[in-house]
Amino acid sequence: MRDPEALYELTPAALEVPLGLPLVAGLTGFADAGSAVTQLGKYFVDALETVEIAVFDNDALLDYRARRPTILFDQDHLADYSPPRLVLSLAHDEFGKDFLLLTGYEPDFQWDRFADALLGLLERFRVSCTTWVHAIPMPVPHTRPIKVTVSGTRADLTEAMSAWKPRTQAPANLLHLVEYRLARAGESVVGFVLLVPHYLADTEYPLAAIAGLESIAAATGLIFPTDRIREEGRDFLTKIDQQVTGNDELKRLVHTLEERHDTYMEGNPLPSPLTDEYGSVPSADEIAAELEKFLSGRRSDDDGR
After folding, report:
1. Rounded to whole angstroms, how far apart are CA atoms 295 and 170?
2. Mean pLDDT of 2-21
């Protein structure tokens, strides 16, 4: 196998990284309900001070035809080229506490080699624990706090936070592979799966990002400024609730989701928080059709800013 270290280039800042820091990771891939991981990546870049310490090789890891880079055409010439980036950085929380941050795209190729490379970096910097987040759509109501499924070696977090503990097979995220290998090596690692309302999965749902930050904080003790995102979340929920209030069918569907969610959370032995006793799952189609008016309007407002 080719040298895993050839997949990335260290920057001069890598020589100054303190040892023993926690790692926080989130990679955009095939599932990113509510654009939770995308929002987190943008948040970390915009709201926190970060310094790149390792940059991964796009030509080895990225399928350019599946995720085409953007080009800026300025009237009569090409003015800018913006390929995706996969980067390990040194970051600081609101109170200046250091941590390592892995953001960017989920590699399309060479998963085992990338995992070797990342684990080598974790060993190099003697990472104390690894925390990662991703998000999936689930038939749960937007009127309840976003719950999480917790995996990894942190039994305290699993006991305190994991709302749904299925035994199932599912398509893997690359960070699943990293978690699996860290756990087998006896390292501290925790993964949070955000359970995002399925009818909001294709939107940029601010409360999904908040749930991700809260999960990371619970695992690491890091503190993040969230006032702006929380305000966006309140505005988002207010507008959705206005749509629901004006439509009896929507109210009935959301109420059904609430009942099933609350029954499960109260300890009723249903097979999951998503289904009734017959295993049926409510459709999102009717909710999505009505909410599309609001969501398309919100996207237009965002584009106009």
Report:
1. 29
2. 96
Rounded to the nearest 10°, the torsion over CA 109, 39, 87, 162 is -70
pLDDT digits (tens, 9 = 90+) for 84-105: 999 999 999 999 999 999 999 9
For CATH 3.40.50.10900, list the domain ranges present in the chain: 4-225
Whether the CB-CB separation of 28 and 106 falls below 8 Å is answered with yes
CATH value of 4-225 in 3.40.309.10, 3.30.9.10, 3.40.50.10900, 1.10.630.10: 3.40.50.10900
Phi, psi of 34 (to 5 degrees): 70, 10
List C-alpha distances in Å: 220 to 43, 131, 206, 298: 17, 8, 21, 34
- CA angle 256–257–260, rounded 5-degree value: 85
Q: How many residues does the chain have?
A: 305
- Which tens digits make up the pLDDT trace of 144-156? 999 999 999 999 9
* Residue 218 token pair: 């619970």
